[in-house]
Amino acid sequence: MLLAGLGGGQDKVLPMLQALQARYGYVHAEAVGLVAAAVNVSRAEVHGVMTFYHDFRTELPAARVIRLCRAEACQAVGCEALVDEAARLGVVVDGPAAGSVSVETVYCLGNCALGPAALVGEELVGLLDLDGLRALVAGA
Amino acid sequence: MFVPGDAAARSVGAEAVALAFAASGMEVVRTGSRGMLWLEPLVEVEGADGRVGFRNVRAADVAGLVASGFGGGHALSVGRVEDLPWLARQSRLTFARVGVADPLSLAAYRAQGGLAGLEAARGLAPDAIVAAVTSSGLRGRGGAGFPTGVKWRTVAGAVADQKYVVCNADEGDSGTFADRMLIEGDPFVLIEGMVIAGLAVGASQGFIYLRSEYPQAERVLRAALEIARAEGVLAAGFDIELRMGAGSYICGEETALLESLEGRRGVVRAKPPLPALQGLFGKPTVVNNVLSLAAVPWILAHGAEAYAALGTGRSRGTLVVQLAGNVKRGGLFELPFGVSLREVIEDIGGGTRSGRPVRAVQVGGPLGAYLPVSRLDTALDYEALAAVGGMLGHGGIVVFDDTVDMAKQARFAFEFCAKESCGKCTPCRIGAVRGVEVVDRIIAGKAGEIAVLEDLAALMTDASLCAMGGLTPLPVMSALKHFPEDFRRALAA
């Protein structure tokens, strides 16, 4: 149903994978075959797309994912200290999801004048400091 | 009263402030941001003599502000917003409406001059539209600076049963956020620009490729497209589909973007054939940056000469400067081409946020050069920056203070390239990994490796398929050239 609504051309591969991930939080291995069949390309082709783009996950993520910017503008205002602090707090950074919270580092969230920046769910956080990060990790 | 709904303003609490004002009975209009991001949340109140602003408002300030009747004497008052020096000195053409009204009100858009460009274009023959864009001197704002009119003429001249207009909104460069702010603050101007492009080149379908890191821009744009369809701005003959990226930096490169739109890995295509002749699905395609397309309605409404009257040399019109990183007053400023880096960083930006001296400035994103303080008198235009070995890119400026380690920044440039390379060409795929290793050896004290680095940089510059591999040596070698002491630290020790 989810896939059928999107039409059947190969150009719908990304929208289909995005729809699956939006619904389930990740793209299950079996869904790769479903997408391939829906647009009439090989499973290898869809697998190739899945693995090229950083956004796609193959496992359920932590309940709360903090996407922390690590690009130049945030480097200039000390984002690396935040990455270190996350690790110090025992939060998984760019690793397999474990527990209720994880940090994924990303390059640029478009909040470069108010860095360090993070994206939690769909909410952008600016001027993030160590206390702010601790609060995000604690779920405040 | 007006409270920005822009993601950057929300990131420092604008949402809670808007809710608090609404709860106290105020009528709140959510707008885009004026771009003076250090003042956010910047709340504005319509008064007898214009709009008065209040800076850095927190939810806790709301009750006091309401009780004070928003008097100019309030501690957070900045006076008339239009009179703020950072706003008054700008030439806001593309961003004229951003921060002023509800971005999703088509009536407000129209009232502020919106759709005048489209009306003018509808009265012109397609080649007259192309001629106007050409004579305005508009160059691609995505980074490459290719003349927009020349690109349009190529697509217009191509014979095909189907043509496309593709908007590149995959704004991945660190230090840039103008595309995001424009989409969140005035989405109709982008839609209008794309409709005009469609008329000019004979395309019936448009696509906007927006990066997935911009959820607020996605919300606004989806809503704007629906309104544009319902109100007939997008009618039979030209429609626009929004597609989301998936976290790949290289998809901002136009041919990788086209591959991604077609449902494949974002692997760069060799050129030729040019996308203008064989682009999306093999059809003639205009691929333009958000700011290029958004400049077009103004040009059609006010005339190519008016646009070309601003700027300097071969850089005509306005440049949307995005000032970011370690800077006291960061944000977005639309200025005529030709202002100096020093004016932007010192006069507008007020120096670093940390209060320490500026040491390095990266202009033009992750693939742009690092410049030392001695080059701050360089003018911001395409040619002047090229003359000092840099590039203007998408207009992003990232400021670093004297705590920066430039060898580390050089290493990062390679690391980023290794992570984000599409893998198609060897110089980029392998060169980036080797680059990290070479810089590591230099940092460890092997000065002889500098010759290896120079050789690798020359190879990547000359032999890479696209700008990713071709320009990664720019931040690396500029760091080495201007800050050699950071690379020789291990030697000296």
Work out the helix count of chain B: 23
Largest interface: which pair? A-B, 44 and 61 residues
Count up the domains of chain A: 2
Uncertain segments of chain A of ≥5 residues (pLDDT<50)? Answer: none
On the 0-100 scale, what is the average pLDDT of chain B? 96
What about the largest sheet of chain B? Answer: 5 strands, mixed
Query: What overall form of chain B do the CA principal axes indicate?
Result: globular
Q: Could you say what the CATH topology of the largest domain in chain A is called?
A: Glutaredoxin
Oligomer: heterodimer
Radius of gyration of chain B: 23 Å
Total helical elements of chain A: 6
Strand elements of chain A, count: 5
Q: Specify the CATH class of the largest domain in chain B.
A: Alpha Beta
Strand order of the largest sheet of chain A: 2-3-1-4-5
CATH homologous group name of the largest domain in chain A: Glutaredoxin
Q: Beta-strand percentage of chain A?
A: 5-15%
Strand adjacency order, main sheet of chain B: 13-12-16-14-15
What separation lies between the terminal Cα atoms of chain A?
37 Å
| Secondary-structure class of chain B | alpha/beta
Portion of residues within helices of chain A: 40-55%
Q: Which parts of chain B are unreliable, with pLDDT below 50 for 5 consecutive residues or more? A: none
SSE map:
The complex is a heterodimer of chains A (140) and B (493).
Chain A: H1 13-24, H2 29-39, H3 43-52, E1 64-69, H4 72-75, H5 79-88, E2 92-93, E3 101-106, E4 118-120, E5 123-125, H6 130-138
Parallel strand pairs in A: 1-3, 2-3
Antiparallel strand pairs in A: 1-4, 4-5
Helix pairs in contact in A: 1-2, 2-3, 5-6
Chain B: E1 2-4, H1 7-10, H2 14-23, E2 29-31, E3 43-47, E4 50-54, H3 62-68, E5 77-80, H4 85-88, H5 106-111, H6 116-122, H7 126-136, H8 148-157, E6 164-169, H9 178-185, H10 187-201, E7 205-210, H11 215-230, E8 239-244, H12 254-261, E9 285-289, H13 290-302, H14 304-308, E10 311-312, E11 315-316, E12 318-325, E13 331-336, H15 341-348, E14 358-363, E15 370-372, H16 382-387, E16 396-401, H17 406-420, H18 426-443, H19 449-463, H20 467-471, H21 473-482, H22 484-487, H23 489-492
Helix pairs in contact in B: 6-10, 6-13, 7-8, 7-10, 9-10, 9-11, 10-13, 17-18, 17-21, 18-19, 19-21
